[in-house]
Request: fold
Amino acid sequence: DAGYETIRVEQRGRVGWITLDRPEALNALNTQTMREVVAAAEAFDVDEGTGAIVVTGSEKAFAAGADIKEMEQKSGLDMVLTDHFGAWARFAAVRTPVIAAVSGYALGGGCELALMCDVILASDRARFGQPEVQLGVIPGMGGTQRLVRALGYYKAAEIVLTGRMIDAAEAERAGLVSRVVAAADLLDEAESVARTIAEKPLPALYAAKAALDVALESTLAEGVRFERQAFAALFDTADQKEGMAAFREKRAPSFTHR
Ligand code: CO8
Reply:
């Protein structure tokens, strides 16, 4: 496990697994956990043998937020000088598709960690929320921005301003979650979705995720321009030739992820 203490890391086929493992704190994200999650995600990201990453927690808690006990006594200046949550930007910048498999609490920074992933699967026990206002702060890992983009202003505003939790069914209706499954089936479902993604040509996956990311940040014209360039670049990959030849020859493709 590369000496990780607050997460477990495992590679199964082309899928990299990161399991948050601080049960005594409901997987609250302290500095060590942040560093370990980011390091593990970046290690998978530079490994050509990894085509998808799953991030999960336990049945009781995906992550109950940033670690309140670690933050409590900090000043605003401490937060700035230590760039307290800065490393999470590197998690969001991972090129490999990331699937969040959420059961139990995904609160505060835990909800924001899920929002940095590309696909969110939930167990029927999942509860999402941004309770920060109750602590006298606000979401600090992108929650106000990504929730507005994902859910629209009014749903996001209600969640952030009230701090209330939404259950899995409401999260699915709101478009946050792709699918809700029984808690006992969550990891199998995550494995299946991750494997489906990971078998696809890696250059196409990187390009697709990059283009999807641009959609959240740019005008339509800029985004379409980016998409067209990324589309053209894929015609210089072996997997594009193989994918299209396999279609023409009516056989299954055999990708080299090149
Ligand atoms: N931080 C630290 N410890 C935590 C956290 C947390 N976020 N959540 C739970 N724990 C600890 C508890 O203190 C408790 O420890 P102990 O047994 O030593 O007292 C243990 O985990 C178990 O928790 P509970 O006994 O409270 O379990 P319950 O089942 O009774 O309740 C809840 C579960 C409802 C999830 C409850 O634990 C809770 O409300 N937790 C806090 C949720 C929260 O407010 N999260 C937001 C945190 S702030 C945040 O994420 C900001 C993100 C970005 C900030 C950026 C700033 C720059």
Notes: The first strand starts at residue 7 and ends at 12. Residues 25-26, 28, 64-69, 79, 84-85, 105, 107-109, 131-132, 135, 139-141 surround octanoyl-coenzyme A (CB under 6 Å). The chain has a mean pLDDT of 97. The CA atoms of residues 7 and 21 lie 5 Å apart.
